[in-house]
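Exercise 3.2. Students should predict the tertiary structure of the chain below and write it as structure tokens, then compare their answer with the key that follows.

Predict this chain's 3D structure.
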Amino acid sequence: MRSFYNLDRIRILLYFSWVMDISQQVNKTKFFCRATGHQRVAAVVFFVVTAGVWFLFHLAGNGKVDLGILLGPCGFKQQYNLPCPTCGMTHSAIAFCEGKILESFYIQPAGALFCSVLAICAFLALLTGVLGVYFMPIDRFFREVRIGYIIAALLIITAAGWAVTIARAIAAKIN
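Answer key:
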């Protein structure tokens, strides 16, 4: 009887190791793996570009760079006299880069959320580029989540931030 139990157990183990896909096996998932050369270069480029943009926002916060010249005036606000969907994101990003994170969330919640996600991605890119550690949940996320859902989430977050900005603008006009 005991040998029958062992044979049955071996058959189940073989099924789980040969028939099931690796992503379906709960005990075979890894959190880290070694990054390829291509992944490391892409991570370093992403980190350098992100750091450059943050440095530009930091210089703008200190008054050394005028982003108004680069971005120009907001046509939506000039035409409709209401804030545009991304109104305040530049100021929010500048506050975030200066370390005023709560102020950044107050200025434009969507901009601060985007900056927070970008900071996390930049940190993971730095780890991947310098240490060669690749995070497998990133691969799994982009494999399982469709790009349309990501775009929809970005649009919803931007719309929510816009709603806050419009509510503040209307409240300022009333007072």
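Discussion points: The radius of gyration is 24 Å. The CA atoms of residues 95 and 101 lie 7 Å apart.
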